[in-house]
Design goal:
Layout lengths: L19 H19 L5 H8 L1 H29 L1 H21 L3 H29 L3 H32 L15 H7 L14 H4 L2 H14 L1 H12 L5 H20 L1 H4 L5 H21 L3 H15 L2 H12 L5 H30 L1 H21 L13
Helix pairs in contact: 1-5, 1-6, 1-7, 2-3, 3-4, 3-5, 3-16, 4-5, 4-7, 5-16, 6-11, 6-15, 9-15, 9-16, 10-11, 11-14, 13-14, 13-15, 13-17, 15-16, 16-17
């Protein structure tokens, strides 16, 4: 972490140098995004008893699809009002909307709260990725991207475990109070970010951004697998006889812990592995881990499967984000990261829609197995392409 705050000069792709407040935002906002789903995930079974299984899952993942809208508009908001104002305002709205979800007297009000939370979440995550591109570059950027995922993964672990006990004691509404913690980051945004607009040295255009479509499509596909444990995992655990929310949270949280450890070393890994090699590793981890979880005969094998899956899920986001930040001019980072975030949370939202019919028709173990086999096939395709020269796109064209 000390390397992130060492003295550095502004570079060609990072016109400012990030200090402690910027680092705090870079690590804290991904934690807030993790909270949108994972803070209430241990209570999904209790929520299902009140609203039905599919409704509960959709309430859980609803912010993901709304984040797509927020991410798409984040670029325009930042270009007109500046990233500092946008981030500060969204931190306040996040707290208000999040807490109100736990106090909502009806399903309609709960849905409204989740919609607002998802929208500002999309703006926040997009903006903080753009801030990283604005304040960090080179190895410092790779490191901060890795630590972002580490912070989110550690938070995921803590949320799944601690909130499991909270749900058992106080019910599924109690974890919503945690969303008020976003206000702790407000001083960092007001102090650490410059007051003006992003430095614009080129004409703003969507063409350089949209040329990265293969990366956005790739991220959507892999996010479906990344959220298998969180969204479908409770049903798999229940099928194996583990029904206590605290136990489910501990099992699923283990994959987040391993993901945190892997993402902490992401900057080091990228010194040795290229983009395709990283996705071979990611594909193998998810492709082996999901079927292993499906057919694990006991708790020990379930733990092993969580470890294997965790190796892959911790490095998906920084791998794609790093490639897009490198290929896109800094003034367009908001737009590029907006599409990136939209692609990521589209995959999260698609998970229950794609997997629920398979689960109901053939069982949860079959669903995990099929998804795993798809990623094993992807690992083979990435391996087969290693000898080919990549086809770059000119982001500044």
């Amino acid at each position: 972490m000390a390397a992130l705050q060492e003295e550095a000069e502004p570079g060609a792709h990072a016109p400012y140098v990030g200090g402690a407040s910027v680092v705090a935002l870079a690590l804290g906002i991904p934690v807030l995004i993790s909270m949108l789903a994972l803070a209430i995930a241990p209570g999904v079974l209790q929520m299902a008893e009140e609203f039905g299984a599919l409704t509960a899952q959709l309430v859980l993942t609803l912010p993901a699809v709304v984040m797509i809208v927020g991410a798409a508009l984040a670029g325009y908001l930042s270009e007109h009002w500046g990233r500092r104002r946008v981030i500060a305002a969204c931190l306040v709205v996040y707290a208000v909307a999040g807490v109100s979800g736990g106090l909502a007297p009806s399903l309609t009000m709960l849905v409204v709260a989740r919609v607002v939370s998802g929208f500002v979440g999309g703006v926040l995550l997009t903006s903080v990725y753009a801030v990283i591109g604005e304040y960090f570059e080179g190895s410092r950027r790779e490191s901060i991207l890795g630590f972002m995922s580490t912070a989110a993964s550690i938070a995921s672990l803590a949320l799944l475990v601690v909130m499991g006990f909270v749900v058992e004691r106080f019910g599924w509404r109690a974890p919503f109070m945690l969303y008020g913690l976003s206000l702790l980051l407000l001083p960092c945004a007001l102090k650490g970010l410059h007051r003006g607009l992003s430095a614009a040295s080129i004409s703003l255009s969507w063409r350089p951004v949209l040329r990265g479509w293969p990366f956005y499509l790739l991220l959507t596909g892999y996010t479906v697998g990344m959220y298998m444990m969180v969204i479908q995992g409770p049903f798999l655990m229940a099928a194996k006889g583990f029904t206590a929310p605290s136990t489910i949270g501990q099992f699923i949280g283990l994959s987040s812990l391993v993901g945190a450890l892997c993402s902490a070393f992401y900057g080091m890994m990228r010194r040795w592995l290229g983009f395709r090699q990283m996705f071979i590793l990611i594909s193998l981890a998810i492709g082996v881990g999901l079927p292993l979880a499906a057919w694990a005969p006991g708790g020990g094998w379930i733990v092993l499967s969580m470890v294997v899956v965790g190796i892959g899920i911790g490095i998906i986001e920084p791998t794609v984000a790093s490639e897009l930040l490198l290929r896109t001019p800094e003034p367009l980072h908001d737009r590029a990261m907006g599409v990136n975030v939209a692609a990521m949370f589209l995959g999260q939202f698609l998970n229950p829609l794609l997997l629920a019919p398979v689960r109901e028709a053939y069982g949860i173990a079959f669903a995990f197995t099929v998804v795993g086999l798809v990623y094993l096939l992807a690992a083979g395709l990435f391996a087969a392409s290693l000898g080919r020269r990549p086809v770059p796109f000119r982001a500044d064209a």
